[in-house]
Amino acid sequence: MANPSFWTQANALLRKNLTFQKRNVKTNVQLVLFPVILCLLVFALQCVIDTQFDKPEFKCGCVCRNNRTRCADSEKVCGIQYSDLLQAALCAIPKPPQWPPLLQLPEPSNRAVRTASLPFSDFPDASCRITDSCPLTMLFTAENHSLAQTVTASMFGSALSMSDYYDRDIYATSAMNVLGSDSAPGQNNFIEPAFSTGLPIYYLQRNCSDAEKFGLSLPIADNEVELKCAQALNLWRNSSSEINSELYKGYYGGNTEGQVNEIVSAFDFLNSNENRYNVSIWYNSTYGRHTNVLLRIPRSINLISNSYLQFLLGPGTKVLFEFVKEMPKPESNFRLDLSSLLGTLFFTWVVLQLFPVVLTSLVYEKQQKLRIMMKMHGLGDGPYWMISYGYFLAISVTYMLCFVIFGSLLGLKIFTINDYSTQFVFYFIYINLQIALAFLVSSIFSNVKTATVTAYIGVFGTGLLGGFLFQFFVQNTSFPRGWIIVMELYPGFALYRGLYEFAQFSFEGSISGTGGMKWQNLSESTNGMKEVLIIMLAEWIVILFAAFYIDQILSSGSRKSPLFFLKGFQKKTPFPNLDTQMQVSKVFSQMEKRDVIQEKEKVEELLREPTINHAIVCDDLKKVYPGRDGNPDKFAVRGLFLSVPQGECFGMLGPNGAGKTSFINMMIGLTKPTSGAAFVQGLDIRTHMEGIYTTMGVCPQHDLLWESLTGREHLLFYGRLKNLKGSVLAQAVEESLKSLNLFHGGVADKQARKYSGGMKRRLSVAISLIGDPRVVYMDEPSSGLDPASRKSLWNVVKHAKQNRAIILTTHSMEEAEALCDRLGIFVNGSLQCVGNPKELKARYGGTYVFTMTTSSDHEKDVENMVHRLTPNANKIYHLSGTQKFELPKEDVRIGDVFQAVDAAKRNFTVSAWGLVDTTLEDVFIKVARDANAFDTLS
């Protein structure tokens, strides 16, 4: 039969994977339910929050004045309520309120005073902080000193009387004077926090009278706001560098005393003169560092500009700055998008959930040695990687599509606002990276439970570290961007960063109505999505290549050198202990029997004149395991010469540790021979193992099966690997099931996990024979079978060996005698004898075994009777009146034994007796004992 093509193998594996997937519907449903449940949880929380924000207190309406609960409609105030900051963001404001312009002032306890770090004599003494009477300090410098002094002298007007605010328009009055507040600024001017927080408003002037220090009241926004006088102190400095130093030392942490000495503002007139106005203004920007607030800067600009105009045109000249106000806005509903706030962490877990699924599937095949089994039945690395990768990719794409579609149907903004093509590219690249990473990591683990626990710790650990550490670094603008990129080299953090960017765009887009992330947004300097996509794409390629490379080195089957791709340029190096090995081979050559020598000569002849009739030829095959920790080298196989023709079943017998498994492992490609060669169908096992796999069948010592696949599905898969198709495949599967009693009673369509040990064993034998392989290795095929099943299996093997070569290992002498055309007894790594069972019994069993049971009183009589038959008799067993003797065949005749027994019966009671020829078991024991004795002597 022709060797299966690449696509035939790929088709077989794909069909098996689809069947396996069908068997795991429950697991698939659970997998899909995880993101569904998280999306539903976010959706439910979103509904609860939306319901809360739909209550009247969060909407524009009409309320009673002064926080009363009941009042007439005529007394209600409708629209924006000045006491409620939230309504400023929700209500329609066609005519925004006007507010007096203010200076941003430091709190009384933070105003600049004389300290060790600011020892200037023109600063006020620190005792003023006790009475909250410290002046508000402003610094000045200029190239033209006199001009600066003249200009700054007119910045603050004369004292203000209470009647000015009641008798005149408040905005016109505030335009003529300087007001300030130490309250924190707001994010808009629909409501000015200075008039709603209960803090006083300060009136700045050169000196405050005692009456003004007690404060006045300011009627604004339906409230009486306390108005206090505050002294403005203008101080001259020689240069802008001096100003910078004082500003820094007055800032938080800028001095060693732990005090805050804030200066209101500073002005550098630079090269200003009568014909040139050029001023730099210092102001405190820290209020808007972390939030987008409106800094109270315009009043400072107007203040210094008016002073310069008065310097030029006289004291009556002013540019009036009456009020500030916001732009009109429509009514809006407040919606807090939880998918954007919580989605980064939750959805990181959702996407990473796929990693343990892929990893455990790969490690399961490794742990159960299913990958090895598939490879030994002809599955190449190319079809395996293509189908396995494509299989996991299809599952991942389906999973992510369900995730995104379901989230979109629920209306989660992180999906609906951001551009779907951007999301598709991001998720597609990441799931490919994740699959490649799972292939790479699977080479580390050999146990499914360990891999599963480790993977899930990684999943939840990545989410938590991303949410509580990595995100902090991303938001901290002072943290080096280079280190952010280094952290994103870890795929989990790259995923988190991408989801974070989606969440940021969806959150801002849902509030502003500008929409989410689109392709053009990737060019923005603050958007990290572009670098994430580049990193993930590069890592995908690198990790996929590394995973394939490591798989080839640690491949199921014989391991390759790390430089296997340079094999053609490497020189072969001898095994380090080759001299010792040759000496040992010479020692053992001295004890080689005639049949072993004949087998060696036969192999040499076959190598000179190759023939296709001999399926297996081993030429001086050796396997030596190097010693470790001071232990000597272990010689597992010592110069094996063996030929097995087509149509022969060769049985390998030997005690445990004799080297049978090492020999089988070399022949099926699990380990490489130390030296020597072996040819299967003319192909060298050292260089053409891939070709040998296509014509080989293996029944391993332990059943390697998928527990969720049925017996029929196993045979269909392995049959397709052997290039069986259509009706030929169906017929071969049915015949295999019937021949091994796996067809009737629905056994063929039961999952392997429901099989008994004997049924699994029979299925393993059926797998090894499906597809008519030319060479079959069976390692103890009948272990664990009942007598009826064993008999049935023997019939199958007898029928199968007619057109193929079979190497069979067993500890059952009955099985060896029934199935094997020839036997080889293997002891201490060497073939001790070769021949058919009759030849071996004749050659090594030249005795009869005589057994007699009598009372203890007549044991001596029995012994005397045996020695009269032959003085060369050897007692081999003696227990409670039962004795066994070996009688050389050349010394006795069977008739003489019967006559002696009849005579003995007349003299004493004989309970039982028997005479048997040498069994194969006796031969085995004798050969093993002799070989061990020689090994001990040598």
Automatic annotation (TrEMBL):
Q: How does it sit in the membrane?
A: Multi-pass membrane protein
Which residue positions does the secretion signal occupy? none
Location comes to: Membrane
Tell me the lineage of the source organism. Answer: Eukaryota, Viridiplantae, Streptophyta, Embryophyta, Tracheophyta
Pfam families linked to this entry = ABC2_membrane_3 (PF12698), ABC_tran (PF00005), ABCA12_C (PF24526)
Q: Which organism is it from?
A: Cajanus cajan
Concerning PANTHER family, the annotation shows: ABC TRANSPORTER A FAMILY MEMBER 3-RELATED, ATP-BINDING CASSETTE TRANSPORTER SUBFAMILY A ABCA
Q: Which family would the database say this protein is a member of?
A: Belongs to the ABC transporter superfamily. ABCA family. CPR flippase (TC 3.A.1.211) subfamily.
Domain ABC transporter residues, every copy: 616-853
Which EC class does it fall in?
hydrolase
Protein name, UniProt field: ABC transporter A family member 7
**Which keywords label this protein?**
ATP-binding, Hydrolase, Membrane, Nucleotide-binding, Transmembrane, Transmembrane helix
Q: Which residues cross the membrane?
A: 29-49, 341-364, 384-412, 424-445, 451-470, 482-500, 532-550
Carries keyword Membrane? yes
Q: Where does the protein principally reside? A: membrane
Enzyme Commission number(s) of this protein? 3.6.3.31
Give GO cellular component annotations, separated by semicolons.
membrane
Q: Name one GO molecular function term.
A: ABC-type transporter activity
Q: Which InterPro entries match?
A: AAA+_ATPase, ABC2_TM, ABC_transporter-like_ATP-bd, ABC_transporter-like_CS, ABCA, P-loop_NTPase
